[in-house]
Amino acid sequence: MAEDILLQAQQLTKRFGGLAAVNNVSLTLQRNHLHAVIGPNGAGKSTLTNLLSGDLPPTEGRITLAGRDVTGQPPEAISRWGLGRSYQKTNIFQPFTVWENVRLAAQSRTPHAARWLSRANHLHDITERAERAIELARLTARTRFVAGAISHGEQRQLEIAMTLATAPQVLLLDEPLAGMGHAEAERLVELLLAIKKDHAMMLVEHDMDAVFALADRLTVMVNGQVIASGTPADIRADAGVQAAYLGEEA
């Protein structure tokens, strides 16, 4: 349904000099669905993510978020309009506790977020939003732990909790399972499945087991271009995708 389409990218292109890192890419992110973008290193996946989040301006094309044209807008504005993202490298405040990290993220969405001398823990809406995000990210038992002291997998959960605390409609996740062991990866897959129902999500990931467990739709990129897009079954059966990326075992 049209009202469930939360983000659309139309014919996005990003050139760096003579190189088109992303070339004429279109995709749609829909509420309650996870759209995975896969491809080999250098395919343009992270550049596409940066275009959608506003970290890079497109050379050509158009991006709409919940019906609003956000093409070329700065990332802080796009974030406030309902887009949250994680990065390949964990982006947290390591000396702060889990609670302090998530509370700061929640506080960024208040009208007076810059009033650093306020007693933020007295603002009940911030507290409730932070508590809910920590619960959703399954970090309740780590609330008072220093962020730098928790495991790598838990730090990735914390980054997701911080993103959820900003109340996004759309989530862009750039290789959230990178560097994880099997057990940590399984826990994060379970977490992403749990939060998928309330968001439109895009996942960039190399772990194909996780991708096929999570994705409702996949887009495959090679050399900045889309070579296939469809359901997981469509992608598994695509001979061109197998030759370019998945391999014979797909």
What is the helical fraction, as a range of percent?
25-40%
What is the average per-residue confidence, as pLDDT, rounded to a whole number?
Answer: 92
Q: Could you spell the SSE succession in H and E letters?
A: EEEHEEHEHHHEHEHEEHH
Annotated CATH architecture of the largest domain: 3-Layer(aba) Sandwich
Structural class: alpha/beta
Could you say how many structural domains there are in total? 2
Full CATH superfamily name of the largest domain? P-loop containing nucleotide triphosphate hydrolases
**Name of the level-1 CATH class of the largest domain:** Alpha Beta
Tell me, briefly, the overall form.
globular
CA-to-CA gap between the ends? Answer: 31 Å
Q: What Rg, in angstroms, do the CA atoms define?
A: 18 Å
Query: Can you list the strand order of the major beta sheet?
Result: 6-7-8-3-9-10
Question: What's the main sheet like?
Answer: 6 strands, mixed
Tell me the fraction of residues in β-strands, as a range: 25-35%
Could you tell me the number of beta strands?
A: 10
If helices are DSSP runs of H or I spanning 4 or more residues, what is the number of helices? Answer: 9
Give me the CATH fold name of the largest domain.
Rossmann fold
TL;DR?
By secondary structure, this protein is α/β, with parallel strands linked by helices. It has nine helices and ten strands. The protein folds into two domains: 1-82 and 169-250, P-loop containing nucleotide triphosphate hydrolases (Rossmann fold); 92-167, no CATH class.
